[in-house]
Design goal:
Elements: H1 3-11, H2 16-27, H3 38-46, E1 49-50, E2 55-56, H4 69-84, H5 92-95, H6 98-110, H7 113-125, H8 136-146, H9 156-193, E3 200-208, E4 226-233, E5 238-245, H10 250-265, E6 274-279, H11 284-292, E7 294-295, E8 298-299, E9 303-306, H12 309-316, H13 322-333, E10 336-338, H14 339-347
Parallel strand pairs: 5-6, 6-9, 9-10
Antiparallel strand pairs: 1-2, 3-4, 4-5, 7-8
Helix pairs in contact: 2-6, 2-9, 3-9, 4-12, 11-13, 12-13
This protein binds a DNA duplex (20 and 20 nucleotides) through helix 9 and helix 10.
Length: 348
DNA sequence: GAACTACCAGTGGGCCATCA
DNA sequence: TGATGGCCCACTGGTAGTTC
């Protein structure tokens, strides 16, 4: 990659080009990937620490606060991930979240001097305006909290620099949402490509449906359907259309059915295909809903794949009740399978 | 070709209703 | 009353179309 292309990538540090560059950097020397270790790479690259609990994120932040039910489950998840990745619980932070940490680094290095110079010229044309980054309420909050330990007020510039950094940190967390969404698809695609003796002849993330062999172009003025991840494998060119969702919400569950109906509608080869859900969702009710969802009397999904069913077992604990027990029954029955098991079967 | 706008699809957060 | 489930929101990057 040339200096120019690195510069272009860093303009969108969380965009597809830079994600691709970072993934190649992370995976250099790792290939081939053993299927049963794929989940470790997914977690090392994408899993993060919830800053409000200090624990690895496995459920919504508000329900994982100390004292609430998911705090104990988050503690178990954090302990399990730490042990499984060979890390101390306190050190897990630096073991995971690789993609976000490196994209953030690129974002900081990409904040160009040229942009700052331009901002200076823009402000010079309209003098007397409030300075960017000033946040008097936040400044007061910090100064009041630290007052007992301060011998004298810090210089205004130092306070402003601190508030700017806090704002930058908050904005960065918002960028994670996009990174986890498309990054999950990217990570799965590269891991599948790096399986040993891969039997796949077609692996593409965010693939237009009509680019997959055996599907029609969109009709009339219909928009092209985009598939999260598409695979074609084996001597009979078996097709797998994969919806990859780090987490699931009820409003997205309806989309699974309509997407599948569109895929069936636009199939032209007259052959069946697999419709697969890959997720890191830990909510048992959502997993059960995905496992049991029907379409025309058959399971909607050919396979329901979780990044780590061992993590699910660890989180749910020894005495699961109600929906937790039901989700575990699907795990034990194989309806919800681990990423490693699914990859092992696929690439044989 | 650059800059801008509108729209889309993805995510987690958070509020609130329901249920056991 | 606390856990759970449903829904909507804000925010992001990507893309297509338009304007200059």
């Amino acid at each position: 990659m040339t200096a120019d292309t690195i510069g272009a990538a860093v303009k969108r540090a969380f965009g597809a080009d830079n994600r691709d560059r970072l993934l190649r950097e992370y995976l250099a020397g790792i290939a081939p990937i053993a299927p049963d270790t794929a989940w470790k790479h997914v977690y090392r690259l994408l899993l993060w620490i919830d800053s409000t609990t200090g624990l690895a994120h496995c459920y919504e932040s508000d329900k994982s606060q100390p004292g609430r039910a998911w705090y104990e489950r988050s503690l178990r998840f954090h302990a399990w991930v730490s042990a499984s990745l060979g890390s101390a619980p306190e050190a897990l932070r630096s073991e995971i979240d690789w993609l976000f940490r490196h994209a953030s680094r690129d974002l900081a290095s990409g904040a160009s001097a040229r942009q700052q110079e331009r901002a200076k010229r823009q402000r010079a044309r309209t003098p007397g305006m409030p300075e960017p980054g000033r946040d008097p309420e936040l400044e007061n909050l910090i100064l009041n909290a630290l007052a007992p330990w301060l011998q004298e007020p810090p210089p205004p510039d130092a306070v402003r620099t601190l508030t700017e950094r806090i704002h930058r940190h908050t904005r960065l967390e918002n960028k994670r949402k996009n990174l986890v969404g498309e990054g999950f698809e990217d990570v799965l695609a590269v891991l599948i490509r790096l399986l040993p003796a891969s039997a796949f002849r077609f692996v593409r993330a965010r693939c237009p449906l009509h680019d997959i062999p055996g599907f029609y172009e969109p009709r009339d003025r219909e928009k092209p359907r985009i598939v999260d991840l598409a695979l074609v494998r084996g001597p009979e060119d078996r097709r797998s259309l994969i919806t990859a969702k780090w987490s699931i919400r009820a409003d997205r569950e309806e989309q699974f059915v309509s997407d599948c109906a569109s895929y069936v509608h636009l199939e032209r080869a007259g052959q069946s295909f697999d419709y697969v859900l890959i997720t890191n969702e830990f909510d048992p009710a959502r997993l059960v809903a995905a496992a049991e969802r029907q379409r025309e009397g058959n399971p909607l999904f050919t396979n329901v794949v979780h990044v780590s069913t061992d993590a699910l077992k660890a989180v749910y604990g020894d005495r699961p009740s109600r929906s937790f027990a039901r989700a575990l029954a699907h795990v034990r029955g194989g309806r919800v399978e681990s990423l490693g098991d699914w990859l092992s079967r696929l690439h044989r």
